[in-house]
Specification:
five-stranded mixed beta sheet; two-stranded antiparallel sheet; 36% strand; flat
C-alpha cells in the first residue's frame, strides 16, 4: 500500500498520467478536511524504521495516527497510515502501436516496471524532527513508539531506545539492537569460534 505523496504524484506526471488516488487516499483527505478546524488535532508517530538499501543509503519510513474532532457534531475520530516515506517508482515504457485509421505506427507512453522507492533520507536532523511526534513515555508499552532497523530484503530488528536508534551505526543496530557493550562484543566473537 502506497499513500499519496508529492514523489508518487511526480512519478505519474513523468509518464503523463494522472495519479490514481485510492479509496484510502480519498478517505484520509476527507478526514483531514473534517478535523481541520480542531485546534487540538494531532499526529502521533507509532513506528519509525531505518532502512538500509544495497547501495548503503539509509532512509526512514514511519507509521502515524491522526486524531481530532469533527466540527459538525464534535465527535472524536482518528485515521492510521503506515509506510509513509515510501512511494512507487515507475519506469517509463514506450510502446509502438498501429493507428489503423492513419495506417501508421505511433509511440504510446505507458507505465513499465514498478518498484518501491523511499523519499526520506536518514539524517539525525530529520529523525529528530519526526521524533517530536513520537510517544516514548506512554504508561502502556503497546502505545509507545516502536523503532526498528531493516536491511532491505533482510530481517527487521527492534531497537528498544530512541537514543540508540538515533546515534548507533546501522551495522551495530543490526547485530546488537543497541549500543554494543564490551560483553556483547565478546559474546559475538566467541560465537564465531
Amino acid at each position: 500500500m502506497v499513500w499519496e505523496s508529492p514523489e508518487g504524484i511526480a512519478e505519474y506526471t513523468k509518464i503523463g498520467k494522472p495519479y490514481p488516488y485510492t479509496v484510502l487516499d480519498k478517505d484520509f483527505t476527507a478526514f483531514m478536511q473534517k478535523i481541520a478546524w480542531d485546534p487540538n488535532k494531532r499526529e502521533t508517530i507509532s513506528e519509525i524504521t531505518r532502512i538500509k538499501l544495497a547501495d548503503d543509503t539509509e532512509f526512514l519510513t514511519y507509521s502515524s495516527r491522526w486524531e481530532g474532532h469533527d466540527k459538525l457534531y464534535g465527535n472524536y475520530d482518528k485515521r492510521n497510515r503506515c509506510e509513509l516515506g515510501v512511494y512507487e517508482g515507475i519506469e517509463r515504457q514506450t510502446t509502438r502501436v498501429l493507428n489503423e485509421e492513419k495506417n501508421e505506427f505511433q509511440e504510446v507512453v505507458t507505465a513499465g516496471r514498478r518498484e518501491p522507492k523511499y523519499s526520506i533520507p536518514f539524517t539525525k536532523e530529520k529523525l529528530e524532527e519526526l521524533h517530536q511526534k513520537c510517544n516514548d513515555k506512554a504508561a502502556r508499552i503497546a502505545e509507545r513508539t516502536k523503532y526498528s532497523v531493516w536491511p532491505e530484503a533482510g530481517t527487521r530488528i527492534s531497537v528498544e531506545r530512541y537514543e540508540d536508534f538515533l546515534n548507533v551505526k546501522f551495522s551495530d543496530l543490526i547485530k546488537y539492537g543497541k549500543i554494543p557493550t564490551d560483553e556483547d562484543k565478546l559474546i559475538s566473537t566467541t560465537k564465531k569460534t
